């Protein structure tokens, strides 16, 4: 009996992965636990180990191809053993895209006549209709059945194929299964994951961005003061601007629990712990490592963690768990000289803070003198489905307040 | 071409088979009817010529040596037919009603059908059992059965059920030429049905179905007198724009898988009409085989329209309700017919 | 009726020995578990099969019973082919597809041992009908047990044979028990033979342990059939040496002194003594026949064991003639 090698699920949101490399060839002997392939998915790559000892008798999915999680990518068995039925392998080879992938164009452009089915409701389809749908690359789930018992028949599939539904923008209904929209066609690995996430974000949320400046003079003075006093002890980045801004945001989230939420799959969840994501730009794409329970971290611990996860991200060493479960993200383009921008929410989070480049501005001081003040431009994107503008503005105001009263940051 | 009745087509086939091969002989109850009756023998006349008159005239023509009236001893004369076949004759016994298989079954079930196999291929059984089947003649529960499926379930027996006079003659001549046991089932309610029948000797191969009309939307496979029901269904559905293919199975064992499956591959929908009771019958066998071998071509469930799971009733209204009709076929198959209508 | 010649007597003695040795050997082999299925042994009844079949040629037909080995040997079937059949081998008379209960050899006019009690009757009617139809002087002999005498076919078939004057001889082997049931219990008529009166045919009860009595009665009946005078019924009283089947404990046996005395008679020894006395063969001839028979049966076993089992494809062949 052959043992299947399946696409692992790495992290909560992973739905499919890409075979980056088979490190073994068909016919090679493998030991249980030995690495047979490398896959990439979402935002990381991972080794796939042999689930059993034996011979790698069949590679079903070639390098560069995608495969939904839990589906078979190959088989280990005894040399010469037949697996999966004679038809299984050639079929997979001829149509490298999996059924789910084939479903993409259809599901992405659902017709007005999309069948009304409850999620998970059984679809009745005749053997012939199923066969024709497969041949034409049609996802029969999108076809309305007119046969007995609401069954999808040959005629239904042929009618659907003859008159395919017109593409419709922003089609995703609230109740639609998250798997249905399929973006990133033609892209691979991390790029595809980014594309998917961004498109899902833009099509499933009501994004509004608020922008304001924060006066950083107090913060900078505070920082200089501490540095002068603590000196060499500050090795962990605890007083980096980024750490301080993050800390200010964490405190604001604790005060505005509705912002520290996840919304998706028709469910809004307020989350107690603040799991803060910090966007890290890599050559392959954007990645957002998550620091869990950040509300419990003082500046020292937080600074160390921020540096640690950034290093891991650059090394490709993040675990799936370090990449999921975030409640709020901070993205920083200040290094590139950007002031304001409109960051895109990282679903299922409902808010993201964009940090711009700090700059000194001429200001009229209280005493009537002209001076300079350090100003930090902040951009907060929030999901207007969950949060209204005023609340969001107040939340952004709290961040500003925290930054302008830096002693709060060490309490 | 002259039109003759179904029963006359059979009589003609028997006559021509006996003429062609002097090892062919008939045996059965009252098939001559005048044996040892002096006033008839003096005039070389028969009386009944079989209880339906199907063999009438053959006794006087071929004599009581070749048209043998047997005592009412179904068990032994059927066994004698097997014994005569295995020793080189070509008997054509008549079992007056297929219902009498109960009293004669052993000869076919454990003896004749198995001899060639048990004897390692050394035996030949050129034996054709003619018998009558079918409800619709007010003959009630013990004289109306459609038991072809019972015979068809036995390896070593072929089973033929003709639907019209032309087929009856050609199939019977084929059966008599066979070196195997053939049970030839004549629907007694078809005996009077007339059709064109060539006078010359001709055969129709066993095991080959006839496509009575071609169609692309729906296949109906059927047997014997149910062919006319299927044709009526086809006519009625044609008016609704549904193009029905009707297949007359002609031979129930072995039935023509190739023709049936090819038809289902074309239409995707199948109704089987079988006059037998619903369980373990021919319709069920066909439905199961098609599901097994042509699953991916099915565009709807296979519908079996059969008699109910009851004996054949006597009262006329009940007997009419017992037999599958076009109305019943359309009603019971609505699930696969209605969506053909709606999608037009 | 032909008188028993010296040559015929020798041949009969050979066959009786062959049957006895064949069955004794099977009894031992079966106990060792070497052969599959049911086995019903004919030992003890040799005089009947051989006494009747001594009058027959290959073109005459016989139908048989569960207990058919004796009829096969008496009708001239090959010992090796029979033994291989019982072993389920490809070289068997029926290619290993029939077995003990269905051994047949149409070339020898042997229409098969039969697993269904009483089903040989109509087959014999058919064979007799064939002989009459074709105008041959061949006969069909129907061997049947005391149990089969109570089947419906007994009546239907004898009646038909009688009304049509078929060349059929009904040979009842009354071996005292139908399986485990005694004939005196299961038959309303004290003898099977007397039922012949109902069909207006000759009926006779004869000592089946006495070869010469068997031979003479059968000869008369077979002659009558060949001449077209119709069927006869003979009841041979005999006794089977072994159980109904191998493994039968036979607790129903030995119910009376009379039965025990009858059981103790050995038809082969009786015939040997008779033949020697009548100088049909010599003591030396007899010993030679006896030794050869033992050797022939041993050779048959060896042949069967060395024969291949049927090819798997044989499962699917011989259902229909092409």
From TrEMBL, chain A:
Signal peptide: none
Family annotation (InterPro entries): 2-oxoacid_DH_actylTfrase, Biotin_lipoyl, CAT-like_dom_sf, E2/Pdx1, E3-bd_dom_sf, PSBD, Single_hybrid_motif
Enzyme Commission code: 2.3.1.-
Domain of life (superkingdom): Bacteria
Compositional bias ranges of the Low complexity kind: 87-111
All copies of domain Peripheral subunit-binding (PSBD), residue ranges: 124-161
One Pfam family in the UniProt entry: E3_binding
Coiled-coil annotated spans: none
Leading EC class: transferase
The keyword RNA-binding appears for this protein: no
Ranges for domain Lipoyl-binding: 2-77
Cofactor list: (R)-lipoate
Record carries keyword Transferase: yes
Keywords: Acyltransferase, Lipoyl, Pyruvate, Transferase
Annotated region described as Disordered, given as residue ranges: 87-115
Family recorded in the similarity comment: Belongs to the 2-oxoacid dehydrogenase family.
Alphabetical list of PANTHER family matching this protein: DIHYDROLIPOAMIDE ACETYL/SUCCINYL-TRANSFERASE-RELATED (PTHR23151), DIHYDROLIPOYLLYSINE-RESIDUE ACETYLTRANSFERASE COMPONENT OF PYRUVATE DEHYDROGENASE COMPLEX, MITOCHONDRIAL-RELATED (PTHR23151:SF90)
Protein name, per record: Dihydrolipoamide acetyltransferase component of pyruvate dehydrogenase complex
Origin organism lineage: Bacteria, Bacillati, Bacillota, Bacilli, Lactobacillales
From TrEMBL, chain B:
Keywords in alphabetical order: Oxidoreductase, Pyruvate
CDD domains registered for this protein in UniProt: TPP_PYR_E1-PDHc-beta_like
Gene3D superfamilies documented for this protein: 3.40.50.920, 3.40.50.970
Record Pfam families: Transket_pyr (PF02779), Transketolase_C (PF02780)
Domain Transketolase-like pyrimidine-binding: 4-193
Organism this protein belongs to: Ligilactobacillus pabuli
SUPFAM superfamilies: Thiamin diphosphate-binding fold (THDP-binding), TK C-terminal domain-like
Designated name of the protein: Pyruvate dehydrogenase subunit beta
UniProtKB/TrEMBL annotation, chain C:
Sequence ranges assigned to domain Dehydrogenase E1 component in this UniProt record: 15-313
Cofactor(s) required, per the database record: thiamine diphosphate
InterPro entries: DH_E1, PDH_E1_Alpha_Subunit, THDP-binding
Keyword Oxidoreductase: yes
Domain of life: Bacteria
SUPFAM superfamilies, sorted: Thiamin diphosphate-binding fold (THDP-binding)
Positions in coiled-coil regions: none
Key words, A-Z: Oxidoreductase, Thiamine pyrophosphate
Protein name: Acetoin:2,6-dichlorophenolindophenol oxidoreductase subunit alpha
Source organism (scientific name): Ligilactobacillus pabuli
Gene: pdhA
């Amino acid at each position: 009996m052959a043992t299947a090698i399946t696409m692992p699920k790495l992290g909560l949101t992973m739905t499919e992965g890409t075979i980056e490399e088979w490190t073994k060839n068909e016919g090679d002997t493998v030991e249980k636990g030995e690495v047979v392939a490398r896959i990439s998915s979402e935002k990381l790559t991972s080794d796939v180990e042999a689930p059993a000892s034996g011979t790698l008798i069949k590679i079903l999915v070639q390098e560069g191809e995608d495969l939904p999680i839990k589906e078979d990518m190959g088989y280990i068995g005894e040399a010469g053993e037949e697996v999966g039925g004679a038809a299984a392998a050639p079929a997979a080879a001829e149509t490298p895209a999996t059924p789910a992938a084939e479903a993409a164009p259809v599901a992405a452009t659902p017709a007005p006549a999309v069948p009304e089915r409850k999620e998970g409701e059984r679809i009745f389809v005749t053997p012939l209709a199923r066969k024709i749908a497969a041949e034409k690359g049609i996802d029969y789930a999108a076809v309305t059945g007119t046969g007995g018992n609401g069954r999808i028949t040959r005629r239904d599939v042929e009618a659907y194929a003859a008159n395919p539904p017109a593409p419709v923008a922003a089609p995703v209904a609230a109740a639609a299964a998250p798997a249905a929209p399929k973006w990133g066609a033609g892209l691979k690995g991390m790029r595809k994951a980014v594309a998917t996430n961004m498109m899902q974000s833009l099509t499933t949320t009501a994004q509004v961005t608020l922008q304001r400046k924060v006066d950083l003079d107090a913060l900078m003075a505070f920082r200089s003061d501490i540095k002068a006093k603590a000196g060499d002890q500050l090795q962990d980045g605890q007083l980096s601007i980024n750490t301080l801004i993050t800390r200010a945001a964490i405190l604001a989230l604790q005060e505005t629990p509705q912002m520290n939420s996840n919304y998706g799959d028709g469910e809004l969840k307020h989350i107690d712990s603040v799991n803060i994501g910090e966007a890290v730009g890599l050559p392959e794409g954007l990645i957002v490592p998550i620091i869990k329970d950040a509300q419990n971290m003082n500046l020292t611990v937080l600074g160390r963690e921020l540096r640690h996860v950034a290093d891991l991200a650059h090394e490709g060493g993040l675990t799936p768990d370090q990449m999921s479960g975030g409640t709020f993200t901070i993205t920083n383009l200040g290094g590139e000289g950007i002031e304001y921008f409109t960051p895109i929410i990282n679903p299922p989070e409902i808010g993201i803070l964009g940090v711009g480049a700090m700059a000194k501005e001429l200001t009229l001081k209280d005493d009537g003198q002209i001076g300079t003040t350090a100003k930090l431009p902040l951009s907060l994107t929030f999901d207007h489905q969950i949060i209204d503008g005023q609340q969001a503005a107040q939340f952004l105001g709290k961040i500003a307040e925290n930054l302008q009263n830096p002693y709060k940051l060490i309490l | 071409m002259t039109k003759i009745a179904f029963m006359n087509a059979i009589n003609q086939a028997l006559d021509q088979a006996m003429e062609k091969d002097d090892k062919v002989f008939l045996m059965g109850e009252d098939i001559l009817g005048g044996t040892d009756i002096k006033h008839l023998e003096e005039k070389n006349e028969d009386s009944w010529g079989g209880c339906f008159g199907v063999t009438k005239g053959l006794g006087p023509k071929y004599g009581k040596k070749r048209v043998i009236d047997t005592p009412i001893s179904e068990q032994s004369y059927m066994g004698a037919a097997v014994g005569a076949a295995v020793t080189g004759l070509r008997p054509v016994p008549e079992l007056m009603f297929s219902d009498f298989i109960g009293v004669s079954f052993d000869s076919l079930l454990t003896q004749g059908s198995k001899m060639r196999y048990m004897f390692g291929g050394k035996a030949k059984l050129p034996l054709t059992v003619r018998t009558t089947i079918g409800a619709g003649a007010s003959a009630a529960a013990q004289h109306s059965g459609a038991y072809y499926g019972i015979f068809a379930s036995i390896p070593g027996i072929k089973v033929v059920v003709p639907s019209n006079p032309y087929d009856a003659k050609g199939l019977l001549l084929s059966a008599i030429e066979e070196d195997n046991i053939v049970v030839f089932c004549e629907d007694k309610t078809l005996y009077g049905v007339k059709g064109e029948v060539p006078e010359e000797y001709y055969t129709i191969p066993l095991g080959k179905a006839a496509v009575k009309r071609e169609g692309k939307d729906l296949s109906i496979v059927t047997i014997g007198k149910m062919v006319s029901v299927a044709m009526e269904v086809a006519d009625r559905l044609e008016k609704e724009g549904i193009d029905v293919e009707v297949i007359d199975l002609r031979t129930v064992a072995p039935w023509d898988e190739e023709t049936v499956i090819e038809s289902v591959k074309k239409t995707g929908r199948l109704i089987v009409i079988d006059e037998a009771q619903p369980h373990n019958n021919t319709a069920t066998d066909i439905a199961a085989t098609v599901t097994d071998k042509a699953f991916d071509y099915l565009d709807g469930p296979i519908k079996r329209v059969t008699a109910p799971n009851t004996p054949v009733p006597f009262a006329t209204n009940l007997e009419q309700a017992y037999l599958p009709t076009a109305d019943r076929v359309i009603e019971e198959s609505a699930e696969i017919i209605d969506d053909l209508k709606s999608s037009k | 009726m032909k008188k028993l010649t010296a040559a015929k007597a020798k041949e009969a003695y050979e066959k009786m020995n062959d049957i006895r040795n064949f069955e004794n050997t099977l009894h031992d082999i079966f106990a060792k578990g070497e052969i599959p299925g049911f086995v019903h042994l004919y030992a003890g009844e040799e005089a009947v099969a051989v006494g009747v079949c001594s009058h027959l040629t290959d073109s005459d037909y016989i139908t048989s019973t569960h207990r058919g080995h004796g009829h096969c040997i008496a009708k001239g079937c090959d010992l090796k082919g029979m033994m291989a059949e019982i072993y389920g081998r490809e070289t068997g008379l029926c290619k290993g597809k029939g077995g003990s209960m269905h051994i047949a050899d149409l070339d020898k006019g042997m229409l098969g041992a039969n697993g269904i009690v009483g089903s040989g009757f109509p087959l014999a009617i058919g064979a007799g009908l064939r002989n009459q139809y074709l105008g041959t002087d061949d006969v069909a002999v129907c061997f049947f047990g005391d149990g089969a005498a109570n089947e419906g076919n007994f009546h239907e078939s004898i009646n038909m044979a009688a009304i049509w004057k078929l060349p059929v001889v009904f040979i009842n082997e009354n071996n005292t028990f139908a399986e485990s049931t005694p004939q005196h219990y299961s038959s309303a008529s004290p003898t099977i033979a007397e039922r012949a009166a109902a069909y207006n045919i000759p009926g006779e009860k004869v000592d089946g342990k006495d070869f010469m009595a068997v031979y003479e009665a059968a000869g008369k009946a077979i002659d009558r059939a060949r001449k077209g005078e119709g069927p006869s019924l003979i009841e041979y009283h005999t006794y089977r040496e072994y159980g109904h089947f191998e493994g039968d404990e036979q607790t129903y046996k030995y119910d009376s002194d009379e039965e025990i005395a009858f059981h103790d008679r050995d038809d082969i020894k009786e015939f040997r003594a008779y033949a020697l006395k009548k100088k049909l063969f010599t003591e030396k001839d007899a010993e030679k026949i006896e030794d050869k028979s033992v050797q022939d049966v041993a050779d048959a076993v060896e042949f069967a064991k060395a024969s291949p089992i049927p090819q798997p494809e044989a499962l699917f062949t011989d259902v229909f003639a092409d």
